[in-house]
From TrEMBL:
This is MFS transporter. One of its GO terms (cellular component) is plasma membrane. Gene3D superfamilies: MFS general substrate transporter like domains. Residues 2-449 form the Major facilitator superfamily (MFS) profile domain. One of its GO terms (molecular function) is transmembrane transporter activity.
Amino acid sequence: MTFAVLAVSVASFALLQSLVTPVLSEIQVDLNTDQTTVTWVLTAYLLSASVFTPIIGRIGDKVGKEKLLVVALVGLAIGSIIAALATSIGPMIVARIIQGVGGGVLPLAFGIIRDEFPEKKIPGAVGIIASLAAVGAGVGLVLAGPIVEALNYHWLFWIPGIVTAVAAVAAFFVVPASPVRTPGKISVLPAVLLSAWLVCLLLALSQGRSWGWTSGRVLGLIVAAVVLAVAWVMVEERSESPLIDMTMMRLPAVWTTNLVALLVGFAMYASFGFLPQFTQTPTEAGYGFGASITESGLILLPSSVTMFVVGLLSGTFVRLIGPKTVVVIGSLIAASSMAILAFAHDEKWELYVANAIMGVGVGLIFACLSNLIVAAVPPEQTGVASGMNANIRTIGGSVGAAVMASIVTASVFPNGLPKESGYTNGFIMLTIAFVVAALVALLIPRVKREVIEEHLVGEPEHPELGMVAAGTLVGDKSE
């Protein structure tokens, strides 16, 4: 029952990331706004989730993960209901900000699994939850068209609102109280600084294309993000009760995993964002298929299916060959899918095959990255470490979307449609990103399966090995 609640919670949050993407033009017309303003329906959710994900995770580590899970689900439910009822763009944007509170469900889910599950089931459970988070981004694009055609876009919010409300009630009664908590007070200043630099950075990345990358606003936000980030690190290092332990973030097992997450988020979200545009391009352009919203979403369906199936099997892969090896293999598989998209995209079946392959690669990567993070930190830091990993993936996605947009639109026809070469160059770039992710994954410290399972439950049989996260395992034991 606990796992069912966690799965529904994470799936709902993930779906809300992408459900509205294909129908922004319809929302724009219905709410009587302009194209620049309607993009805030996406931007507001991204910014809010990026701020709340690590903060909710950290508070959960301190006061109880089950309590904060209910709070996150209530935020998703209330935000969804307000969005469903919105008749103007203002309330819609406010609703999306409230929904962002739900970003905390991912780190909370990982923490609850670590606290409550038998040790042999933890890698598989974490893998499935991580896969659901990735699958949701693709499934949202697939479901949006049929839901809007059968009902209307308001049901893109009514359905998640009802589901998350039920999940919140179930979480209150079903999910056990956290047995592991972090002592100490919650630091306010680090939370404010973290929120400030994330907002500045993601606002610049998300609005750079419309404002202009060399505009004063974008450059000012980037400078502010750098200054605030430096101030945040300095405050965290001097704090007696830091929001995010900088020592933890510098551990080899943590920073390497986070860097892989950044690169994979960069490539995956960029491909999800531009494949529908590619397929919807009229055939008169010399490429594309003139697909409808529903048809373009269905082309992404194979990746969602294979991603979820691989997530179910990830625990077995982790036990057989270890998470580091799985991440390397997954990155190379995903790179091959982007190469197919770059050089073989004249037929629909080629896109179906490429997406199915990408789902296999990304499913392997995300499932194992989450396991590595959960295994790499003490139990009381699971929530905040998982939250930052998810946040870094989101930042990677924002950067990837911005860079992909610049490459795709570098050369356009007189009617404004991008030329085929733009997409080809963009997918080549994403291929390179996955290859670099594989190279970075080689730097992740290698540990035995037995050591991972021991530390996932915090009760090692060989305490002399030390924490996996320390990255200090030497000699033959490091193998």
